[in-house]
């Protein structure tokens, strides 16, 4: 009796299966519809073809796939660059702007040593594709380098960096670009990047998480292969430098970054234009942090990701000669 019931189920199963297989085989076979329906289907198919042809003729590119939104949590890096007019200015700024283009969530704060924005810098910023703010701050006469004076006699770019600090604190108007300072409570990092150094894009990711002041080595500076903090157990315990090691912060301008909130919480902290040679960095940092609280980056300060490179001043002997003959290079062409 049990056996028979099992057979019944087996037969029932096989019949259902073959029914299903038959139905599946029928799918995709030309249907046995009436010629009337077939004509209608053919009509629709031709209309579809026509529509897609017309769409192709319109030549509209397909909508770009949506970019993943930048995570709001990523702090913005404010790169402060003082700059002044000279033969190599455009070359330096182009090189720097194209390095900065590789870095997400970056805002370039360019400060011209000029009375008013120059067309060269304004044009370069507009074409850079970067988020930027354009500031101007003329170096006062007394602080200006005199003709023939070596660059280390007096610190350069002080007025300009302080103008950028004032803008970041909402105390100074901008000449161009994004004029509004970062909103209150915005997460950000401030880095002072001169226009002639060489920067690895990796450096910017190292500094992005800065809570107070972060530090790292700088290559080709101070007469050494590199200068930088010495780190033990993840803490800065000293500095590798050959020159005036007793300075409170024997660091190069390119060797540290400061969190925006720390800068805003100490409104008096700025660079001192009267600071003795080599003490400019200390004049800002001593208002902000204790050396032992510096945050070492770049693998505990064992990797060099920025170089204090110097561009040679171009010689213009031939140019001057031609100019005396009234045949100088076309001054209408920007170099
Ligand atoms: C830095 O050094 C500390 C302590 O020795 C260690 O825990 C940490 O992993 C190091 N960090 C890096 C990025 O090498």
Automatic annotation (TrEMBL):
Protein family per UniProt: Belongs to the glycosyltransferase 43 family.
Chain sites annotated for binding UDP-alpha-D-glucuronate: 82-84, 113, 156, 161, 194-196, 308-310
Source species: Monodelphis domestica (Gray short-tailed opossum)
CDD domains according to UniProt: GlcAT-I
Positions marked as site (Interaction with galactose moiety of substrate glycoprotein): 227, 318
Glycosylated residues, chain numbering: 300
EC number of this enzyme: 2.4.1.135
Pfam families membership: Glyco_transf_43
Protein name (record): Galactosylgalactosylxylosylprotein 3-beta-glucuronosyltransferase
Positions with a binding annotation for Mn(2+): 196
Co-factor requirement: Mn(2+)
PANTHER family membership: GALACTOSYLGALACTOSYLXYLOSYLPROTEIN 3-BETA-GLUCURONOSYLTRANSFERASE 3 (PTHR10896:SF65), GALACTOSYLGALACTOSYLXYLOSYLPROTEIN 3-BETA-GLUCURONOSYLTRANSFERASE BETA-1,3-GLUCURONYLTRANSFERASE (PTHR10896)
Quaternary organization: Homodimer; disulfide-linked. Interacts with PXYLP1; the interaction increases the 2-phosphoxylose phosphatase activity of PXYLP1 during completion of linkage region formation in a B3GAT3-mediated manner.
Keyword terms: Disulfide bond, Glycoprotein, Golgi apparatus, Manganese, Membrane, Metal-binding, Signal-anchor, Transferase, Transmembrane, Transmembrane helix
UniProt pathway: Protein modification; protein glycosylation
Gene behind the chain: B3GAT3
Domain of life: Eukaryota
Record has Membrane as a keyword: yes
Catalytic activity: 3-O-(beta-D-galactosyl-(1->3)-beta-D-galactosyl-(1->4)-beta-D-xylosyl)-L-seryl-[protein] + UDP-alpha-D-glucuronate = 3-O-(beta-D-GlcA-(1->3)-beta-D-Gal-(1->3)-beta-D-Gal-(1->4)-beta-D-Xyl)-L-seryl-[protein] + UDP + H(+)
Membrane topology: Single-pass type II membrane protein
Active site annotation, chain numbering: 281
Biased composition (Basic and acidic residues): 312-322
């Amino acid at each position: 009796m049990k056996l028979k019931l099992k057979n019944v189920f087996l037969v029932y199963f096989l019949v259902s299966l073959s029914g299903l297989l038959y139905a599946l085989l029928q799918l995709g076979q030309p249907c046995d519809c009436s010629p009337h329906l077939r004509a209608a289907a053919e009509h629709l198919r031709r209309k579809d073809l026509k529509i897609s042809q017309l769409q192709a003729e319109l030549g509209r590119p397909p909508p770009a796939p949506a970019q993943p939104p930048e995570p709001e949590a990523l702090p913005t890096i404010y790169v402060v660059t003082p700059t002044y007019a000279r033969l190599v200015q455009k070359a330096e700024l182009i090189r720097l702007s194209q390095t900065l283009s590789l870095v997400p969530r970056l805002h370039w704060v360019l400060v011209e040593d000029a009375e008013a924005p120059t067309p060269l810098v304004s044009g370069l910023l507009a074409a850079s594709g970067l988020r930027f703010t354009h500031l101007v701050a003329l170096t006062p006469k007394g602080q200006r380098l005199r003709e023939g004076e070596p660059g280390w006699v007096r610190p350069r770019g002080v007025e300009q960096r302080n103008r950028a600090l004032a803008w970041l604190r909402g105390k100074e108007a901008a000449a161009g670009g994004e004029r509004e300072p970062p909103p209150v409570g915005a997460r950000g990092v401030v880095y002072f990047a001169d226009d002639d150094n060489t920067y690895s894009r990796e450096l910017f990711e190292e500094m992005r998480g800065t809570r107070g002041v972060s530090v790292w080595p700088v290559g080709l500076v101070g007469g050494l292969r590199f200068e930088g903090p010495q780190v033990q157990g993840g803490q800065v315990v000293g500095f590798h430098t050959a020159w005036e090691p007793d300075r409170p912060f024997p660091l190069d301008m390119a060797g540290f970054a400061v969190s925006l909130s720390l800068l805003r919480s100490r409104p008096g902290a700025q660079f001192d234009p009267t600071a003795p040679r080599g003490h400019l960095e200390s004049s800002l940092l001593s208002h902000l942090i204790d050396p032992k609280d510096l945050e070492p980056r770049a693998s505990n300060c064992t990797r060099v990701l920025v170089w204090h490179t110097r561009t040679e001043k171009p010689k213009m002997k031939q140019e001057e000669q031609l100019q005396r003959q009234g045949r100088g290079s076309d001054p209408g062409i920007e170099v």
